[in-house]
Amino acid sequence: MIRRESKQVGFVESFLSQPSAESVLDRINSSVDWKPIRRRIEKLYRQEGPGRPAYPAVTLFKALLLQSWYDLSDSAAEEAIADRLSFRRFLGLTLEERVPDHSTIHRFRDRIAAISDRLFEMVNRQLEAKRLTLKKGTLVDASLINSVACPPAKGEGSADRDASWGGRREKPVYGYKAHVGMDRGSELIRRAEFTTARVHDSRMFQAMVSGDEEAAFADKAYRSRKHSQWLQEQGIRDGIMVQAQHPYPLSESQIEHNRSVVRVRQGVERFFGTLKRIYKFRRCRYWTLSRNRCHFFVLCICYNLRRAVRLAVA
Fold it and tell me: Are residues 202 and 145 both part of a single domain?
């Protein structure tokens, strides 16, 4: 059973919750239409039935966003929400209301795992409606993310049954792989997917291209005749770096093409730097592909919402 949001705010909450200046959380809260997100999540719940009423769907979804922005575990999120007025205001909780406990947050994450990609798309549609996406080009890239489990010894199994080996032979990584398609200029993530580490980058190229951009840029791992032909058919300029074929070296024009692509791709490299340094996503937090995939899409939503606030005030 899912509870609807309550619009009743007491006098004390009204007085204490007024910030001296509008915070980032306040700007994000007012910039998003939460109604379609609420309706989509509520489809996962029974509207009627016995038992204690649950928290509103958007409240629990926002709790996941706070977790990602502030690098909080489920237990730490419960404590922080109870302690910080700005968090309560963002979640729409009064001072008298109990905050979601760690088990409620954990169960909610598992419940929305199957639709996390759709929630990401719903938020993106709102950003696109505000004309924040420029569609001048898409920067395609992928990055390996370590599993929460220790790499298994040769011939042994792993506690994380969905993780796999990937990366270069001299420096393999046991875990997963995050794939993104970033909008050139706005640096918003338009497409995303999360797979096991063994999935090669090039397999996800077409899925990371939206189809309405002017060009697609990617490194040498994505270069193939198939991708070049597909981009031509879509009317999208080919910005994939060229790889030399032995024994023929690259021409001067090909070298200059690669240099121009490297300059353009800096935006997507900054995203992965932010993901790993700021959002602490060098290593997965959960077991199984489903939970880590959900976490990744929530991180992408968080990144886009923060980025959208910066673009709005620029």
Answer: yes
